Amino acid sequence: MPIDRDALAESVAKLEGVDPADAGLDEALDLVAKEADDLFPVDGAGIMLLSEGSVLRYVAASDEPGQVLEALQEHTQEGPCVDAFYHDRPVAAPDLAADPRWPSVGPLASGHGIRAVLGVPIGLRNGPVGTLNVYATAPHAFDEGERAAIQAYARVVASLLRAGVKAHVRGRAAAQLQYALDHRVLIEQAKGVVMERRKLDEKAAFELLRRHARSTRMPLDEVARQVIAGGRLTR
User: Fold this and answer.
1) Are residues 103 and 137 in the same domain?
2) Residue 25: inside a domain
3) What is the pTM of this model?
4) Owning domain of residue 20
5) Cα dist. 216→65, 86, 101, 197, 212 in Å?
6) Residues 197, 115: one domain?
7) Are residues 127 and 161 in the same domain?
8) Taking phi first (over 0 means left), then psi (-120 to 50 degrees means alpha), and beta for anything else, what does residue 156 get?
9) What is the CATH number of the domain that holds 141?
10) What secondary structure does DSSP assign to 78-100, as a single string?
11) Fewer CB within 10 Å of terminal CB in the chain, N or C?
């Protein structure tokens, strides 16, 4: 479905005028979720940030189903938004009910009336710190225009987060953001070590870190610290 370019420009300008130091970062991100819901041909939107334990956690949603979607992905650590974060690229699910990639989240989300999802990474400094997510209650194949527009919106979110860091704002979202920034550096450093040791590309190195964290039931940031200190990973 075509995006109204004038409405997109107006919404982006509105968000660019928001100062997290005045409104608070939590309120600013709530506004982003609501604006995205109103602007795009979707039924809801939300934002997740990397948090303690190196897992994505909910920080804002336009409505209750959006909160449910993020809570399910937070609990299972699987889903299109989780993959968008870890692979640093947009990930779409045209119909979660029929998608085998997420065997836990798919049936649960569709049971709550959530059928289509698009997760887009929010990049800051050394890589993504979270995701901007939209969903639809009916199957929907997100076209290139929709993906590009939502990616542009994610860049606005990154600008708000950057302004929040500079202003040293406080609150739940600000605490999660600081954690994300601190621990993303660790993960990127560990990924570089693995790439050099194993002669792997970036994606394969990161998958090895994630697989080791899952098999040992250790937080990803702790695995990263061990790798940087000279520890070895299992295949």
Assistant:
1) yes
2) yes
3) 0.79
4) 5-169
5) 32, 19, 22, 20, 6
6) no
7) yes
8) alpha
9) 3.30.450.40
10) -SHHHHHHHHTS-EEES-GGG-T
11) C
Q: What is the DSSP letter of 119?
A: E
First to last CA, the chain: 44
Helix (H) or strand (E) holding 72: helix 64-76
Handedness of CA 201, 205, 208, 214 (dihedral sign): negative
Same domain, 153 and 198: no
Residue 195 and residue 162 share a domain: no
Contacts of 206 (CB under 8 A, 6+ apart): 86, 87, 187, 191
Q: What is the pLDDT along the chain (235 residues), one digit of tens a residue?
A: 567 778 877 887 888 777 777 768 888 888 889 989 988 989 999 999 888 767 788 889 999 999 999 999 988 889 999 999 888 899 999 999 999 999 999 999 999 999 999 999 998 866 788 999 999 999 999 999 899 989 988 998 888 888 877 766 777 777 777 777 777 777 888 888 988 988 888 778 888 887 888 788 787 778 888 889 888 887 6
Q: E-strand spans in the chain?
A: 44-51, 55-61, 91-93, 116-124, 127-136
